[in-house]
Amino acid sequence: MPGECDYNGALSPRTFPFDPTRTSPLRIGPHQLKNNLIVAPMAGVTDRPFRQLCKTMGAGMAVSEMVASNSLLWGSEKTKRRANHDGEVDPISVQIAGADPQMLADAARYNVDQGAQIIDINMGCPAKKICNVMAGSALLKDEPLVARILKAVVGAVDVPVTLKIRTGWDRDHRNALMVARIAESSGIQALAIHGRTRACAYTGEAEYDTIAAVKAEIRIPVIANGDITTPERVKQVLEYTKADAVMIGRAAQGRPWMFREISHFLATGKHLPPPAVEEIHRVLVAHLHDLYGFYGEQTGVRVARKHISWYTRGLAGSAAFRHGMNQLQTCAEQIDAVNGYFAELSGLGERLIYVEETGVMNKPGRMEVEEPAELAA
Ligand SMILES: Cc1cc2nc3c(=O)[nH]c(=O)nc-3n(C[C@H](O)[C@H](O)[C@H](O)COP(=O)(O)O)c2cc1C
Question: What is the secondary structure of 301-360 as a DSSP string?
Answer without folding.
Answer: HHHHHHHHHHHHTTBTTHHHHHHHHTT--SHHHHHHHHHHHHHHHHTT-SB--EEETTEE
